Amino acid sequence: MPETRHLTPPAGTTPRGRGWLPHGFHLGTHSHTEGQLVYAAAGALATTTERGTWVAPANRVTWTPPGFDHSHRFYGRTDTRLVAIPVELCGGLVAHPAVFAVSPLLREALLALTDRRDVRPGADDRLRAVVIDELADPPEQSLHLPEPRDDRLRAVTDLLHADPARTTTLAELGRAAGASERTLSRLFQTELGMSFHRWRTILRVHHALVRLTAGWSVTDTATECGWSNPSSFIDAFTEVVGQTPGRYQAGLRER
User: Fold this and answer.
1) Do 22 and 95 belong to one domain?
2) Which helix or strand (DSSP H or E) is residue 11 part of?
3) 100, 134, 168 - which closes a domain
4) Global pTM?
């Protein structure tokens, strides 16, 4: 892995504009007085809050409302676009961190907002209104990986974070965490809103996105992230991300 760089912006400031960030770049925990959209026009990013982690490849954009502590990590050489949303306009978006699908119109509006400054009076305001309109649909939940508060459940998820490819059953993980399979199964549903299998699948897809962005082959990514064969990986990836791994990598080359 390349060296990870850290940057924590001054409290109360909102970075704007665009910039290329290296693989592994980490923007430390911070918050903003305004809302913020972060879009990877190339590469991918992960946004982490106390509610969990959202991964955003180039067909997603992350949203963080004002006042939420969060951090970002970038994967692949990332063309990063930052768009601030003034507080008075944040009521038009969900009141919690989220990730949204990026339509062709939304992509072009985000690029235009970050490629140049106001070319005509009010032009940026009109583009920002288009962005907010495009984000009116419900946020995309498939790439959200929630994190637990229960110590037993956190012990299990920590083991999986350390090795997403491990095939250990929930019962075996429970013995390591000091909890029964039944208790852990209930906690996954009540705390995280999904089954153990679903949570582990999304974790593996997060890791797969990082590897695909870095240029790994579909077959090698499937093996490294815990799938028994490329076909099952392709099916799971497509269900979560909305496109095949091959199509995702082709899209990276096209941008």
Assistant:
1) yes
2) none
3) 134
4) 0.82
- Report whether 83 contacts 114 (CB < 8 A): yes
Where are the alpha helices (H) located in 93-195, listed in sequence order? 104-115, 123-134, 151-162, 170-177, 181-192
* Shared-domain flag, residues 112 and 28: yes
Counting DSSP H helices and E strands in the chain, the numbers are 9, 9
Choosing from 134, 164, 198, the residue where a domain stops is 134
Contacts of 194 (CB under 8 A, 6+ apart): 146, 188, 202
CB 165 within 8 A of CB 224: yes
Please indicate, yes or no, whether residues 17 and 128 belong to a single structural domain of this protein.
yes
What parts of the chain have a pLDDT lower than 50? 1-15
Question: What is residue 115's predicted lDDT score, i.e. its pLDDT?
Answer: 86
Task: State how far the Cα of 124 lies from the Cα of 119, in Å rounded to an integer.
Answer: 8
Range of the domain at 178: 147-254
Same domain, 170 and 120: no
At residue 255, the pLDDT reads: 61
Give residue 87's pLDDT.
Answer: 95
What pLDDT, on a 0 to 100 scale, did the predictor assign at position 23?
86
